[in-house]
TrEMBL record:
Name of the molecule in the record: Uncharacterized protein
Coiled coil: 20-106
UniProtKB keywords: Coiled coil, Membrane, Transmembrane, Transmembrane helix
Organism, as annotated: Opuntia streptacantha
Alphabetized PANTHER family for the sequence: OS09G0108400 PROTEIN
Domain of life: Eukaryota
Transmembrane region(s): 161-181
Amino acid sequence: NSMFEPGHGIGNNAEGDASKAALAEKLENKKKELLSVEEKIQLLERKWAEIQDKVLKQPSPAQREKALDKQLHSLIEQLAAKQMQAEALASEIHMKEKELERLNRLWRRVENSKEANAARNRLGRSGSSGRFDLTDNELDGHGKLPYHTGGRSEYRQRLRLLRSSFVLYIFLLHIVVFIKISF
């Protein structure tokens, strides 16, 4: 269909131009549609990539279970270590208590031997008559026993203080054990 064929004149040329313009407009509309569809496809591809990244970052249930299992074993090992520490501290406390008992027995022996020596000394000073008499020099102004018995009560007070200190020490060790077990 050439323009110079019969039946194609100037009027037909205008129709052709209108037809070309309509086709060009349709083509332009299709291009716009295509661009819009391409933008939507790119948007969907970006969203898909984001979803895949999230999936890769989030562990699967099997991976989560494995991680939790590792944490559990780690906590069990830590608990076992803390238990061993607590047992060691309890053993140390037990040893200290035994040592305290041994020292108390030794202390009582020393105390008893001092009292026995003091009694012998008093009996030896009373003379050959074998009776126990306190002279004026042995009594203070208020009729009390001599100074060394006061020293003995001071000694007993020191012993009580030592025992109390040691009991407090044992108590503090118990607290330390409790704190170490807790953390």
